[in-house]
């Protein structure tokens, strides 16, 4: 006898990064480079200002319920931030952000509001696995995958276009996750222009198809290369000219303010249809009400103070520079060790991660276990071919040794 619904039967706890991170923690002395967090000396970096803020907040401020859509002051502050980061946007088309319990709830909310069985989701071949759990397992969307990089290791606009035009479903969600998890890639200005132009042309040629364009900006701001410091929303906003396109931005303080456990995310809509915007905001609030009811007041109070504190901003910038320093050391070490003679390094220029495509004769899962138990480094095997490494977790002194040992492990596999 089974008590489960069909959804309950289909849901699984994937053997993903959380499980592999736990396995790494069980190995004495192992360095954990699996999970999307920034650490120093194996402890979360964070912002020192948070400790000060917590000690100052009065319980009369954080114990009451928050409004379902979030604290008005926080929503206004985040909208101002979005407009500052995307100075080409028209303010009147940008909605007031709605507060979510992390960006994951934002993804789940927009998925449930706009997708159902019989719809499609377009993703790169390498993506965050929770997308599949939400869209495919829970909502029975069909997932279409384009190959993110071509044989020359360039962003594969041609395949994106080919797969988009192959989709037969009438409603298509497109998630643009830059900086990308797991590859750590943000397209160049020209690549983003071309990508959006492909979507724009498709929308115009297929007026009966509905397109939901979602920017998952979880790692927004961690851009390390000139010409790749680009906000997706600044480019996708033009798609709002099409009546069959809805533009959405998902982001939060999680990575941007080194506040992973505070679980504050945002959903923001960009549409020229003011009536539609009002309806969507009401529906979004209704969905949030039916799930978490209201977001955590304490975390929002902290977020408000972080966004209005010059000290917190300075600490954030310092942490950003620390991650960038690790990125630069990583790039230099990969070149010095000539690691690309042994494996394929997928392009990366931003975020927390980079991804390695293993040779045909090496199974990534088996390699991960060997690297963990024999070399004491925990990395994330996404599938049979790809390894993701979170350099955000690595103190700069460790990076050269990890790359050296990785190469050694490949050669001795």
Automatic annotation (TrEMBL):
Q: According to the lineage, what is the superkingdom?
A: Bacteria
Signal peptide bounds: none
Give every Aminotransferase class I/classII large domain span. 59-404
User: So where does this one cross the membrane?
Assistant: none
What cofactors does this protein use?
pyridoxal 5'-phosphate
Q: Does the keyword Transferase apply?
A: yes
A GO biological-process term: amino acid metabolic process
Alphabetically list the UniProt keywords: Aminotransferase, Pyridoxal phosphate, Transferase
Query: Is Transferase set as a keyword in this record?
Result: yes
User: Gene3D superfamilies of this UniProt entry?
Assistant: Aspartate Aminotransferase, domain 1, Type I PLP-dependent aspartate aminotransferase-like (Major domain)
One GO molecular-function annotation for this sequence? pyridoxal phosphate binding
Q: Which family does it belong to?
A: Belongs to the class-I pyridoxal-phosphate-dependent aminotransferase family.
Name of the protein described by the UniProt record: Aminotransferase, class I/II
Please give the organism: Gemella bergeri ATCC 700627
């Amino acid at each position: 006898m089974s008590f489960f619904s069909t959804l309950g039967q289909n849901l699984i706890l994937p053997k993903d990064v959380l499980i592999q991170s736990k396995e790494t923690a069980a190995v004495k002395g192992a360095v954990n480079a699996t999970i999307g967090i920034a650490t120093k000396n194996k402890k979360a970096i964070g912002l020192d200002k948070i400790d000060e803020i917590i000690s100052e907040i009065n319980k009369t401020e954080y114990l009451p319920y928050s409004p379902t859509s979030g604290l008005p002051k926080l929503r206004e502050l985040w909208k101002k931030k979005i407009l500052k980061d995307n100075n080409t946007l028209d303010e009147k088309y940008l909605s007031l952000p709605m507060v979510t319990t992390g960006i994951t709830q934002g993804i789940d909310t927009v998925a449930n509001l706009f997708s159902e069985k019989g719809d499609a989701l377009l993703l790169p071949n390498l993506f965050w696995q929770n997308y599949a759990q939400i869209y495919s397992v829970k909502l029975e969307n069909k997932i279409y995958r384009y190959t993110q990089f071509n044989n020359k290791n360039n962003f594969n606009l041609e395949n994106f276009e080919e797969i988009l035009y192959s989709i037969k479903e009438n409603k298509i969600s497109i998630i643009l996750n830059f900086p990308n998890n797991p590859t750590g890639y943000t397209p160049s200005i020209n690549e983003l222009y071309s990508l959006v132009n492909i979507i724009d042309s498709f929308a115009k040629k297929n007026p009966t198809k509905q397109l939901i364009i979602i920017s998952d900006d979880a790692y927004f701001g961690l851009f390390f290369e000139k010409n790749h410091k680009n906000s997706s929303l600044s480019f996708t906003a033009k798609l709002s000219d099409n009546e069959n396109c809805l533009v959405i931005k998902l982001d939060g303080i999680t990575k941007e303010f080194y506040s992973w456990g505070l679980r504050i995310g945002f959903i923001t809509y960009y549409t020229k249809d003011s009536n539609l915007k009002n309806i969507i905001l009401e529906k979004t609030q209704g969905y949030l009400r039916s799930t978490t009811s209201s977001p955590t007041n304490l975390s929002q109070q902290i977020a408000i103070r972080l966004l209005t504190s010059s000290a917190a901003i300075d600490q954030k910038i310092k942490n950003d520079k620390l991650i960038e320093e690790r990125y630069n050391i990583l790039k230099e070490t990969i070149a010095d060790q000539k690691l690309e003679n042994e494996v394929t390094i997928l392009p990366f220029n931003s975020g927390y991660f980079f991804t390695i495509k293993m040779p045909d004769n090496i199974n990534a899962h088996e390699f991960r276990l060997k690297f963990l138990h024999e070399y004491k480094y925990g990395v994330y095997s996404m599938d049979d071919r790809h390894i993701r490494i979170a350099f955000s977790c690595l103190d700069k002194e460790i990076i050269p040794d990890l790359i050296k040992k990785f190469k050694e492990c490949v050669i001795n596999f």
